[in-house]
């Protein structure tokens, strides 16, 4: 009987419970299918610290080699370290991780040579079809000359590449608390930070895919409480939190207050524009703050607004030749990193900006964080379309108000905006609200939620 992959093959990756939904046998078939669809002669494979990751990654490598591809196994790595390997070696890559999901989950993030994304429209649907076929009929016979497996440690080279992209020469000494959440930040941060004038205070650096302290998902406020307290206790200059596969980075200022990823996007955009002579395109998704396009224009750049999701950001970066892109979920994309996302490089920009002047981080970021935002609020609804229609009916036709449907429903006025998007996988509506002052934001937030939840 063919495997049913409908529950684990998502829009941009593979993700599911091991071994209930997938296992090493299927991982081997995924490796073979990946080579067949990409036509790769060589690939790179890496994995995170989850208990199931080494076995799944090796099975994938064996499946790929059986189809004739030479496999470079880079072992333990962050997702952006796998992108580095794909970019610098110019080969397709596969990263075994379930990012911030619980320990029983695992997954595969795949890319073509140069870290170009593989999603439903760029090869993932074909890979799924082959795996389903082969799970029933059996994998095709190995090729006459199978590929080889070699190991390669890319951590030092990855760190050197990132450090070459940020001028840290004028940086003053800083005290930095880093919460790795028992994820891959505990593997990468010590090497990347080794040459910096930083007193590093590590939290949860032990690699442990069972996540004994908290979920490795800093987007949820409860998972940065420990970091916030430690920053205050240490009198640190800032705190950094990485998710499980360390491709996203969240920032806490010296007061223990979480920094909006939109403010980080604006700060890094200004720095990347300066590095490129005050010219360039910067991509931002439609739920980032008004601050982002304002700062981009003020620094000579051209802002481009996109839908939420890394595939849209990467596609628009490639189309426009953008130098940088940012999402409110704390994904940061760099032209000089093959248009791929790397939270570590964004963190280095924050350190360089803070260390290059004397004011504390809260003061430095004030000019990049200009409005009152709600953060993302999820509501469980019986009918997403009906709830969205009710909100649209309430705001359509109001004076000085515009509506657009680039991604869900966005309603904008002179003093505020909100976006309402349906989840693709759950019966949820996601609301983001921003206004020029806090009282306006709160009233708008409550009015829209009342419409959604009636």
Q: Structural class, from helix and strand content?
A: alpha/beta
Helix count equals 14
Give the amount of beta strand, in percent: 15-25%
Shape-level CATH architecture of the largest domain: 3-Layer(aba) Sandwich
How many domain units? 4
- Give the CATH class of the largest domain: Alpha Beta
Family: Belongs to the phosphohexose mutase family.
Cofactor: Mg(2+)
Protein name: Phosphomannomutase/phosphoglucomutase
Keywords: Isomerase, Magnesium, Metal-binding, Phosphoprotein
Quick structural summary:
The longest helix has 16 residues, at 438-453. This protein has helices spanning 24-38, 53-66, 79-89, 124-137, 155-164, 185-193, 225-234, 261-275, 291-298, 310-320, 343-355, 361-365, 384-395, 438-453, and strands spanning 14-17, 42-47, 70-76, 93-96, 105-112, 116-117, 149-151, 174-179, 198-203, 238-242, 249-252, 281-285, 302-306, 324-326, 332-334, 372-373, 377-380, 402-404, 409-412, 416-422, 428-435.
Description:
By secondary structure, the chain is an alpha/beta fold. The chain folds into four domains: 14-153, 3-Layer(aba) Sandwich (Alpha-D-Glucose-1,6-Bisphosphate, Chain A, domain 3); 157-252, 3-Layer(aba) Sandwich (Alpha-D-Glucose-1,6-Bisphosphate, Chain A, domain 3), CATH 3.40.120.10; 261-368, Alpha-D-Glucose-1,6-Bisphosphate, subunit A, domain 3 (Alpha-D-Glucose-1,6-Bisphosphate, Chain A, domain 3, 3-Layer(aba) Sandwich); 372-453, Alpha-D-phosphohexomutase, C-terminal domain (TATA-Binding Protein, 2-Layer Sandwich). Helix content is 36%, strand content 22%. The radius of gyration is 22 Å and the shape is globular. The termini are far apart. The mean pLDDT is 96.
């Amino acid at each position: 009987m063919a495997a049913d992959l409908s529950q684990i093959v998502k829009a941009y990756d593979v993700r599911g419970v091991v071994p209930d939904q997938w296992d090493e046998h299927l991982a081997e078939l995924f490796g073979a299918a990946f080579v067949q669809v990409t036509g790769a002669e060589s690939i790179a494979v890496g994995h995170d610290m989850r208990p199931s990751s080494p076995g799944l990654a090796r099975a994938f490598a064996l499946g790929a080699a059986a189809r004739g591809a030479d496999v470079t196994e880079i072992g333990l790595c962050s997702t952006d370290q796998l992108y580095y390997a794909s970019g610098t070696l110019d080969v397709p890559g596969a990263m075994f991780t379930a990012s911030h999901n619980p320990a029983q989950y695992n997954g595969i993030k795949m890319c073509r040579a140069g870290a170009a994304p593989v999603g439903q429209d760029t090869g993932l649907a074909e890979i799924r079809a082959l795996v389903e076929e082969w799970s029933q009929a059996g994998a095709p016979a190995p090729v006459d000359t199978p590929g080889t497996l070699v190991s390669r440690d890319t951590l030092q080279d990855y760190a050197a590449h990132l450090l070459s992209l940020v001028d840290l020469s004028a940086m003053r000494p800083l005290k930095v608390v880093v919460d790795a959440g028992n994820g891959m930040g505990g593997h990468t941060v010590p090497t990347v930070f080794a040459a910096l004038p930083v007193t590093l205070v590590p939290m949860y650096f032990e690699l442990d895919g069972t996540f004994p302290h908290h979920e490795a998902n800093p987007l949820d406020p409860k998972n940065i409480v420990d970091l916030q307290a430690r920053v205050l206790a240490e009198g640190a200059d800032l705190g950094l939190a990485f998710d499980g596969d360390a491709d996203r980075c969240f920032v806490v200022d010296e007061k223990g207050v979480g920094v909006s990823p939109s403010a980080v996007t604006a700060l890094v955009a200004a720095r990347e524009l300066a590095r490129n002579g005050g010219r360039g395109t910067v991509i931002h998704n439609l739920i980032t703050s008004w601050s982002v396009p304002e700062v981009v224009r003020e620094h000579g750049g051209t802002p481009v607004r996109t839908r939420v999701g890394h595939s849209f950001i990467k596609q628009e970066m490639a189309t426009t030749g953008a130098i940088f892109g940012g999402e409110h979920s704390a994904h940061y994309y760099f032209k000089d990193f093959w248009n791929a996302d790397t939270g570590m490089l964004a963190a280095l920009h924050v350190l360089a900006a803070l260390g290059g002047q004397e004011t504390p981080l809260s003061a430095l970021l004030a000019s990049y964080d200009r409005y009152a935002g709600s953060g993302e609020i999820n509501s469980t609804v019986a009918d997403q379309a009906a709830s969205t229609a009710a909100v649209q009916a309430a705001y359509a036709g109001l004076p000085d108000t515009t509506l657009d449907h680039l991604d869900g429903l966005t309603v904008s006025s002179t003093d505020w905006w909100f976006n309402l998007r349906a989840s693709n996988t759950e019966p949820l509506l996601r609301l983001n609200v921003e206004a020029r002052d806090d009282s306006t934001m709160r009233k708008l937030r409550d009015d829209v939620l009342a419409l959604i939840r009636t």
